[in-house]
């Protein structure tokens, strides 16, 4: 498996993954009726962000996007999102994408990574993030309408890359 920068020709392999994940309504708070164009606009990051694909030969197994969590004074914290094809889950694709995003964020000088909306019933994602040093810093109760479990919480998860004291006051993301 290779993780590489997304190119437009990859969309034909990314869109089915995004569509399946979003339409399941189990892990992402995106509109399940979103079109391919809307999904593309949401998923494909512009610089300084990055969208990548995990591929095996020519098949897209998963995808990730990463970039500043917020503009301006919040731009020193990164965020990321990950999606894996249903038949590729349990094969380490999500783990590889998460490691890639963490390495990318640290290389680009971010102070930490924040996930804004991790569905608390998505145990595989929560466990993966905890294994990689994230912790739940808060949960919004009932913020996600799960199709079978009803309203469940959305976690905010965070991992610092350095303590605030070691961040230069003039820090500006490259």
Structural class estimated from helices and strands = alpha+beta
**Cα separation of the termini:** 29 Å
Q: Class in CATH?
A: Alpha Beta
Computed Rg: 16 Å
Bin the helical content.
25-40%
The description of the largest β-sheet is: 7 strands, mixed
Strand order of the largest sheet: 1-2-3-4-5-7-6
**What is the fold named in CATH at topology level?**
Aminopeptidase
Write down the overall geometry. Answer: globular
> What amount of the residues lies in strands?
25-35%
Number of strands: 7
What is the assigned CATH homologous superfamily? Answer: Gcn5-related N-acetyltransferase (GNAT)
Low-confidence stretches: 165-174
**In the CATH hierarchy, what is the architecture at level 2?**
3-Layer(aba) Sandwich
| H-E order | EHHEEEHEHEE
Number of helices: 4
Average pLDDT reading: 92
Number of spatially distinct domains: 1
What does the secondary structure layout of this molecule look like, with pairings?
Layout: E1 2-5, H1 11-24, H2 36-43, E2 50-56, E3 59-68, E4 77-84, H3 93-107, E5 112-119, H4 123-131, E6 135-146, E7 150-160
Parallel strand pairs: 4-5
Antiparallel strand pairs: 1-2, 2-3, 3-4, 5-7, 6-7
């Amino acid at each position: 498996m290779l993780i590489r920068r997304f190119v437009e020709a990859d969309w034909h392999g990314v869109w089915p993954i995004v569509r399946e994940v979003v339409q399941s309504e189990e892990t992402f708070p995106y509109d399940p009726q979103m079109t391919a164009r809307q999904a593309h606009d949401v998923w494909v990051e512009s610089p300084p962000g990055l969208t990548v694909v995990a591929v095996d030969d020519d098949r897209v197994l998963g995808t990730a996007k990463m970039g500043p969590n917020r503009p301006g004074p919040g731009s020193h914290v990164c965020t990321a999102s990950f999606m894996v094809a249903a038949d590729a889950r349990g094969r380490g694709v999500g783990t590889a994408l998460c490691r890639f995003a963490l390495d990318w964020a640290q290389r680009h000088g971010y102070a930490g990574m924040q996930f804004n909306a991790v569905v608390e019933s998505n145990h595989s994602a929560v466990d993966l993030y905890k294994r990689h040093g994230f912790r739940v810093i808060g949960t919004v109760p009932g913020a996600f309408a799960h199709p079978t479990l009803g309203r469940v919480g959305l976690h905010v998860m965070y991992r610092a890359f350095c303590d605030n004291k070691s961040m230069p006051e003039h820090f500006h993301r490259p």
